[in-house]
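Practice problem: Hemolysin activation/secretion protein
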Amino acid sequence: MQSEGCVGRGVTSRRIGLRAAAVASLWGAVTAAARAPSPETAGGPIVRGRNAAPADASENACIAVFRGFRAFPAVFLAALCIPAVAEAQRLPAGLPSSLTNAPSAIRAATDRTRTEAAGPLGPESELRFTSQTPPANAREIRFVLRGVELSGGALYDTAELSPLWESALDQEIDLAEVFALAARLQNRYRDDGYLFTRVVVPAQRIDDGRVRFEIIEATLTSVTIETPGLPLGPMRELAERTIAPLQGLSNPTLAQIERTLLLLNDIPGVTRAAAVPKMGEGGRGGVDLHINMERDAVGFTLFADNRQSPLIGRGLIGGVLALNSWSPAGDSTIVSFFNSADVDDPFPDDFQERHTIQVEHRRILDPSGLWGSFRGLYAESAPGDRVAIFDITSDQTELTATMGYPAVRSRALKLDVFGGFQTMSVNSLTPAIGGLGQDLVTDDRLRVAFAGMRAEYRDPYGSGEGRVELRAGLDVLNASPKGSPELSRQDGDPQFFSLRAELSRTQPFDDRLSFWAKGWAQAADRPLLASEEFAIGGPELGRAYHPSELSGDLGAGLSMEVRYADQAHWGDVGVPYEFYAYGDMAEVRNLDGGAPIHASLVSAGIGVRAQLPGAMSLNLELARPINRPLAHTQRHDWRVLFSASKDF
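Answer key — structure tokens:
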């Protein structure tokens, strides 16, 4: 999992009420980061290879105190600073790290409360354009089959199809078997994807034992878009260009039609795109394809949870506004705003510890599905709680440009390839106490090129998702130099290579009981800065812990759930719900002796997710740290956690 920073750190999304883009943006601007204390620093001078951003700020504050009060005994210094240092090492915001787009975190907090996840791959459409029935006396009409003649087909020659009837040659058959052979020939076309091709037995006189079959290959004489609901608006032009390759297409395959429908469903705001074929008027093989489409032009989601760090507010509230496909090019804009909230702090102090705003714009560049996006994020934080006395402040600016292409679109597999460039600038300031000493500043400037692929797959037994991404830090555009004293980690290198991977699987056992598992991993070739580290703890991995309790250059984790889904009824209203029990484990390692060299988290819990009336989703969870105490309290107590969202 990606390490979080100034306001949070995150992971990747699927469509919820605001569809895929809005959901990704929802948690892309949200999750908080944290750091665990390093045992190497306890009780002594702060000298280590790995300085996570949060630790730097508080440690620097201690150093400033030391410079101003050199005459004080070391015991007094330790008593004053070490608790705050340990706490600051877990501090997500305000200390240079990074907040990146985190779609999978919203999947953990919200998507899993919904029942819209892809299920196992069901049977293909049984749509047929022939229902030829043998005559009533077909069993009485018998003859010796001497040969087969085909007319009208251009896709296959007779030699390719002859194995279907060779075993019946020179054998006595009846007329019913002739119609059965026509069905086998038609199924051969269907098996190869030619959904609308028909094979018929024309009227004929069989005198010499030779049977004639007529192959009627299909042509899409017209493809039209219908909108049973509200008009599509400006995006109709994009939809028309997307279906244009099907117009007049001879011998259309199921794969071609599926890809087109799935590309239509990929357009932001489209909630439904389904095809209804009818017999066409352009000859015997003509097919008219009617595509029903529906669209949400505007979406809005409110979100709240209590899964954050006490240092920047235990709670989080925010909203996402999505303007979907408002131009003929499918331009879509998503604006997200999130703020800290904490019932333990007086109003308005609880709203002042973290602010995040994110704007994301996406455009369909070509009807083939090629797309481009640009995302800008700005965040500020001023940590409170035990480190409030240090007046630490930080800000983060992030710009990301991405292009992607749907390499595969089918019922069984959706595969996207993507690449882009990202700039991240994270700054932190710890003022000198009482004007003594120097202000301490950390400044990470990363310039990262990335490329990868993500997939969703379904098979007859279940479904899953996967993602792999290669990242490279570049020495361009005023990136931080290696060895700069202002880096968030002394031995961290802004020029690096790292590889991230995720894989999940949902395995149903019946209509109610299922098993879900997801794994994460990261590898790197050298020590990383805080924003690029693998972080554990938070809503997805290490759920009983605060976000980013631990982080490292290398990491891996596994989360598993057993789920039981059903539906309750309030009067005439159905309320889908899901009980679950989970367990997760994760570990991180640091290169070149960074601290911690190795550490792990294990947690477990139970919970319930529900889709309430009024487009509301709720997740209640009881979670417990297992192998190490919660860093903030140093206890293994059970935690009551929640997340909720409301779609408009």
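Discussion: The domain at 19-120+297-647 is CATH 2.40.160.50 (Porin). Students who identified this feature from the tokens alone can consider the problem solved.
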